[in-house]
């Protein structure tokens, strides 16, 4: 999310002011807003009140509202997904009430995301005079969709709903007019309903017609694409347009909380095949799935406290842009919403009413501030688990959460939290009053070593963060990423906190001049670690080149345009000096740039030293070998093997042509010389 960057700036500004004992009070405006809520079927006037009374003060970024356009007349909730016109007239309210809601929410610092039903119109004859649309504005395939057929997915009627010709200029303009009308009333974002059924290029064309917001930014859009493996239309096709729903998140945490062990969720942000974090919209469940479409997801109907714990996990874990589902109680999936709203005659379930109000549950609503205040440290730290259903983790010193999903027993443990010394409000147990700096519930003490004892009952959680400390807001120093050594002016460097790649690769094509960079196969070349950055130096001036950064081919950025001498920092191109690099005219250290060999002192006196290797990270791809690998050649007092490409890291075993052998060893450039049982700089093994 764009807002996250604003946050980092705020925290960096404060860097250096902080000391373990000193309290620094930070203006709320510097904390980003990183979570939103779906107020399903809520009335506009109730949403306006909710923005003012609850969502604004709690730090929510936005509300996804139900489709506001005129739809078929039917009590079931799903009638809202059958548009008959683009007039703002629905059972949530009329145009005036809509406008009032948007204004009041914006004034409370909460954006409105409109659920845009633009793939189709209602399931009746193909005539909507109010738009107007007539037969020629619709596709003409009424077959049941075969999901293994891309054309059918995008051109046939979805459950009988008249499928719009989104490739037509006229239709695109009508849709854009509707969305621009909303933008003119202050709407800041859109959920694109049934986006899988609209080609990504059609959405891009519609998006290009949208006006900018009052602040000059484009509207935020996120696209509902239900990923299913093996289908031709995949969520990743849509990331160029904006955010995309990541259903794997809900499915994975749901089955871990319901049937598995939640310690398996440790490295969720590195699971391959998932959308990059800055594109993924995540949720515990959504309005379709809670009605039984997805067996493994947690819903408000689950026994005990699991649904609450799922939200605590989602809001604590640094992956994606979370959406909290907040609808109404139902028995049968077609049940209509309560006719009176939360603030207009009915009430939340916990106050005896019919609305679920998940977002107001203390452990959910207060975790929004946890996510906001920890956003500058977009990583899991201080992880602990009991090998099963009790986990705890930190967020780089800005927050710490404990989740006890076990069905019996209290978890009492002293954790290393990584947090500054102080007294913090357990925001799951109590509310923090930011003016009085008091906590209505349990207080947790973090000692000078960052340790804190927690006692958390079964199916319970506890969480603390720097925005809810009894001494005021304590902000640990957050420095920007730092380079370690100078680079030449031709280098290209990369750092992205939210992407969290472990092995950054650079893929490139169409360099200008073409002679400056040799062509590479996907995923390209391994980048060399330089402090917190990773760099690749083509050693020649390149005025333009297309690039993709990837995690060794797994998660990847979109297609980017670059030049040599640039630095991609948290999603934006900067100069090398803006990333903190000093420049050198020195040619690359010849030894450092020629670490193509692995050498071995043969301390074991093998008569025929062989090198076996695997997991090779190198500038260009290295073929795998079968045991015992390749023969090494004598070079001075060592034996060496030359890979002919610059090595970054690899695993090796030296053997006597397969008989006597060393243990599995890990080597990292430039320490590629195995001397007296340890890895040393390559120059120590070979005569230069
Ligand atoms: C969505 N995302 O892609 C929404 O999240 C989902 O709630 C919508 O379906 C769907 N796409 C279309 O916008 C819901 C509901 C359907 C319902 C449709 C349209 O899940 O069951 O379909 O809205 O109202 C209903 C009937 C269905 C009938 C259809 C057409 O349930 O049986 O199909 O209307 O008359 C013959
Ligand atoms: Ca379509």
TrEMBL record:
The cross-references to Gene3D superfamilies, in alphabetical order and at most eight, read: Glycosidases, Golgi alpha-mannosidase II, Immunoglobulins
Lineage summary = Bacteria, Pseudomonadati, Pseudomonadota, Gammaproteobacteria, Vibrionales
Its name, as the record gives it, is Alpha-amylase
The catalytic activity, as recorded, is: Endohydrolysis of (1->4)-alpha-D-glucosidic linkages in polysaccharides containing three or more (1->4)-alpha-linked D-glucose units
* Matches recorded under PANTHER family: ALPHA-AMYLASE
- Similarity comment: family membership: Belongs to the glycosyl hydrolase 13 family.
Task: List the CDD domains hit by this protein, alphabetically.
Answer: AmyAc_bac_euk_AmyA
Q: Tell me where the signal peptide lies.
A: 1-27
Taxonomically, the superkingdom here is Bacteria
What SUPFAM superfamilies does this protein's entry cite?
(Trans)glycosidases, Glycosyl hydrolase domain
Q: Which residues form the Glycosyl hydrolase family 13 catalytic domain?
A: 34-371
- Mind listing the GO biological process terms from this record? carbohydrate metabolic process
Q: Which organism is it from?
A: Vibrio aerogenes CECT 7868
